[in-house]
Write a structure and sequence with these properties.
This protein has about 375 residues and is an alpha/beta fold. It is about 45% helix and about 10% strand. It contains twelve helices and eight strands. The relative contact order is 0.16.
Amino acid sequence: MPDPSPALSPYDAIVLVSFGGPEGPDDVLPFLRRVTAGRGIPDERLAEVGEHYALFGGVSPINAQNRSLIAAIEAELAIRGMPTRIAWGNRNFDPLLADTFTELATAGHRRLLVLTTSAYSCYSSCRQYRENLADAVAAAREATGVTLEVDKVRPYALTPGFGAGNVAAVRDAVLEARSGSAATPALLYVTHSIPTAMDATSGPGDGEGHLYSRQHLWVAEAVTEQVAGELGLPDLHGELVFCSRSGPPQQPWLEPDVNDRIEELAAEGVDTVVLAPIGFVSDHMEVVYDLDTEARATCERVGVRLVRAATVGTHPRFVGGLVDLLLERAAQARGEAPAPAAWTGEDVRPSVCAPGCCPNLRTARPALCGQD
């Protein structure tokens, strides 16, 4: 793998890091075992979850979408005169992050810049990736004797590229909804639910917490305001709902569930709902099953028309924004102080996480790219 463009120095490799997903029926159970390792979940329960994947031939769309995103980032870098190959490593399925880091170390790379496919701030969206980075560096060191140096770009939910991609998606979906109804549709912004304790501790250890939910609310408010203005719909209002709850019943998770809210809206006389999956970068399983399958079934049962907005995917503004973040982090590593791109005027996350940020509430583990 050749070194990146000099504009990305001092880094000699760029790595996209994602969650990963099965690519065939035989992969589903091993994948779910890896995702839930250490939680004592029996195979019988994992097999029930695996039925979601069976609806799609045992294939999660996430890996194919990551390949498309990598190609789009490489194309954007080439357009800017910075031809660069992007490496790829997953937390839970091939190509595994530890293997990717080991291959890079063997090939002579020493300083890596990581871009994750998670835009928000909480333990599972940020710190857990940082723990995975520490594990992968340790694995590469054991295999090769080389200690890699790793940095990552900051969480990017509140950056212009992510915002522009979501504005375009929601605008198109609202227009489609309006084509079949004179009424302004109900607009539900959807993200992955997490335990309320994880949300309460998201953000710096000395802050007010709840950064995960606050970031989503900021994005939802900003998207709604811009779309309402562009379309001349002052009565367009959005609200935040959640999907993919997976914890035990006695553990509080963020609510309301998207299906519960759809049922409530139907009872209130709403006939059209737009679902905007702002919590996700691409149409992976939480989107194609939880929204396109399960929530759609709920809408059909209660007589509500569903229009689903796209994820940012490979929207040109989103991809361009990711390249901007790579360049921003490289400039910081060179000792420069570039002005961070911000979209909503709200909290700009640092590239190096503050002490106590988004802690692991189960057990203390080493994590890279932070001050603790």
